[in-house]
């Protein structure tokens, strides 16, 4: 029985043969998905629901309460490009009844100065 087990000498040439095969990919990993619209599978990934605003009644049927959706999203880094919903103008909620919807508007005062007012669309 030998007192010490002989250590195997490292072979630098053999180690080199375990390198990467093929060409190395440049840059970080990504898996970019393009969304055609709010019905695409990843359209609402990482987009929170919009808080319900005041008197608005229902979730927008187009963006389902998100107000926006991804047009492009990277499923690894989650960098994304988004589109604002033009049905609810990004609010995520819509008015379904006959209540007027308030919006900010600018009018001209009798003195000739512009002034912010709350206008109501019927
Ligand atoms: Zn919407």
Secondary structure: elements and pairs:
Elements: H1 12-16, E1 32-34, E2 58-59, E3 68-74, E4 80-84, E5 93-94, E6 101-108, E7 114-121
Antiparallel strand pairs: 1-3, 2-5, 3-4, 6-7
Bound molecules: zinc ion.
Region (Disordered): 1-22
InterPro entries: HSP_DnaJ_Cys-rich_dom_sf
Task: Please characterize this protein's 3D structure.
With about 120 residues, the protein is mainly beta. The chain has a domain at about 30-95. It is built from 1 helix and 7 strands, in the order αβββββββ. Strands 1-3-4 form a 3-stranded antiparallel sheet, with no helix packed on it. A hairpin with a 5-residue loop joins strand 3 (about 70-75) and strand 4. The protein starts with 11 loop residues before the first helix and ends with a strand. The mean pLDDT is about 80.
Q: Which outline best applies?
A: elongated
Beta-strand proportion: 25-35%
Question: How are the strands ordered across the major sheet?
Answer: 1-3-4
Portion in helices: under 10%
Radius of gyration: 29 Å
Secondary-structure class: mainly beta
- Helices and strands, in order, run as HEEEEEEE
In the predicted model, the low-confidence regions spanning at least 5 consecutive residues are none
Ligands bound to this protein structure: zinc ion
Count of DSSP H/I helices? 1
Intertermini distance: 98 Å
**How many strands?**
7
Average the pLDDT over all residues and give the rounded result. Answer: 82
**Sheet with the most strands, sense and barrel status:** 3 strands, antiparallel
């Amino acid at each position: 029985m030998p007192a010490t087990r002989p250590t195997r000498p490292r072979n630098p040439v053999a180690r080199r043969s375990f390198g990467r095969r093929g060409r190395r990919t440049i840059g970080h990993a990504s898996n970019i998905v393009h969304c055609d619209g709010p019905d695409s599978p990843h359209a609402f990934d990482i987009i929170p629901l919009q808080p319900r605003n005041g008197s608005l009644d229902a979730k927008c049927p187009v963006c389902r309460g998100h107000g926006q959706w991804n047009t492009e999203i990277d499923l690894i880094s989650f960098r994304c490009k988004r589109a604002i919903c033009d049905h609810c103008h990004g609010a995520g909620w819509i008015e379904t009844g006959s209540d007027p919807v308030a919006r900010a508007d600018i009018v001209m005062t009798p003195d000739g100065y512009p002034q912010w007012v709350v206008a109501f669309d019927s």
